[in-house]
Amino acid sequence: MELVDRDGLTEREFLEQYRAGDYERPSMAADMVIFTVTNTEADNYRKLPEKELRILLIRRGGHPFLGKWALPGGFIRPDENADQAAARELSEETGVDDVYLEQLHTFTDVGRDPRTWVMSCSYMALIDSSRFQLKAGDDAEDAAWFKVSYRHLREQKELLDEGYVKTLTYELKLSAEGEELTAVINRTVTAKPTSKSVVYAIMSNDGLAFDHGKIIASAIERLRYQTNETDIALHLMPKLFTLTELQQVYEVILDKELLKAAFRRKVANLVSETDHYTENGGHRPPRLYRRNWEQA
Amino acid sequence: MELVDRDGLTEREFLEQYRAGDYERPSMAADMVIFTVTNTEADNYRKLPEKELRILLIRRGGHPFLGKWALPGGFIRPDENADQAAARELSEETGVDDVYLEQLHTFTDVGRDPRTWVMSCSYMALIDSSRFQLKAGDDAEDAAWFKVSYRHLREQKELLDEGYVKTLTYELKLSAEGEELTAVINRTVTAKPTSKSVVYAIMSNDGLAFDHGKIIASAIERLRYQTNETDIALHLMPKLFTLTELQQVYEVILDKELLKAAFRRKVANLVSETDHYTENGGHRPPRLYRRNWEQA
DNA sequence: TCAAAAGTGTTAGGAATACACCCATGG
DNA sequence: CCATGGGTGTATTCCTAACACTTTTGA
């Protein structure tokens, strides 16, 4: 027995006659914060290179925000979902497929794009830097990998009658050759007896397009959180790596020094030792490790 | 000095002449999993009522999925963001404002709505059941609060050459007066050397519309996670409550019995004692607590 | 008096923290 | 030999799981 609606139509008949209304619809973009970790060269015998956390930005060649830097991304097409759109954009920008991708948050504020109604479904991606060439801008467009610094500046908490308002202020600094972008971002938590909300606000912004400062901030917070709680940071490592390299990656993500012994115990279950070593010269050669798939 | 683009336009001039292209755009809905906790009546002297976790569903009155049950929600309007749309829908459905709302995930699979291209930005909401009338369907539409059961059925893990595939199978049961909906949902984690992805799939589904089984499953997982890690469950409590009631709420969310002493220590910082007590009859009267705003 | 629930103390084990120490290398 | 980094052991602190126990009430 087939159900019919109040017009006497079956579902099949309904779908055949269905025409989408012409009310206004938003454009949906998938924008990505692509993280990688690179080495600084600083090899004067007995000094190891340091690590830097970097993200890919693209200089806008047209209005709006002409000349400002924006996250890579693009509109989702009708024949793909958001994950596929993100993977496609990532492949187009960097030439790399099969990458760790995680959906973060969907940004929908009115007026976030001055042209028209555009929402952004944001993603973070993690790539081992050995998988691509650092010069991403092989076509005309101007792309660069910016070193990331995201630091807590101050905290302000106000107790209300019932509830509180807590504002954390962060400074986001992005730097590449000759370019230095700075933004100050507030993360405000408002708690009341029945509700609780978290709002990001851009207090100042020098050089970033749209609301991408918010997206980058939330991506960094997510990356830090996941690094502490999961094995996600291993996606930034090549097949074989030393534990000191892994620790440096953790440190540059978390912007915090870690104790060696404790770190090694923490990641012990995430990696397996191999029989290979590197020669670094001047020190005891470190053992190489790989990911361990048995656990978790 | 004003920047001009390759057509010689300033940003202001560009925006004035800008016309949105007529490529296809998706509709964007905000759909909500609204949780509350209710008491069963079972007061035969010396027995306290038990708690049940419930969500609001609405029976579809038209195609597609005529007669099936769907999450409350609606399309986002051009003059509001997704949070505001969710709050507006929530107020329309339940009459309650100022509620805990959290954005979850944006579902974008092709074909998830058979009519047209529709994405869903999903939210979870937590309401103390004393704040609304249980009969939400005061207008024509058919709404009901369904008791939630979400149980782990089995786990399957396959080790690959490099990586693994882990599938967790869950049974989602929703029950209201005379209605019993069941869905089986797989959560598959695929880990490879360079990537990792989590995919939800509906294996069977009896009575739920669209992909709402996935949305409900991810909301329950988020609620459980947040209950363990934060004070979020307090949004389900009235102003004054006993610690046993709070523990019952935790237990019904987590589907797990907790030890009293450990629970009390865990929530000690989240609540403050008051000088009020309830009389339950037959037992020692429990002290009433309220939220503590000093902490966290 | 007693069943049912409120509420507290005590112990054991595991994880993170902090520090101290030894090992290996090549210039 | 020694600076530099690789690598390990141990004591301390903290959190939580587990269990045992006491208190209070109204029929």
UniProtKB/TrEMBL annotation, chains A, B:
Record-linked PROSITE patterns: NUDIX (PS51462), NUDIX_BOX (PS00893)
Stored Gene3D superfamilies: Nucleoside Triphosphate Pyrophosphohydrolase (3.90.79.10), Winged helix-like DNA-binding domain superfamily/Winged helix DNA-binding domain (1.10.10.10)
SUPFAM superfamilies noted in UniProt: Nudix, Winged helix' DNA-binding domain
Keyword set, alphabetical order: Hydrolase
UniProt keyword Glycoprotein, yes or no: no
Superkingdom of the source species: Bacteria
Residue ranges occupied by any Nudix hydrolase domain in the UniProt entry: 26-173
Membership in a protein family: Belongs to the Nudix hydrolase family.
Protein name in the entry: ADP-ribose pyrophosphatase
Species name: Paenibacillus helianthi
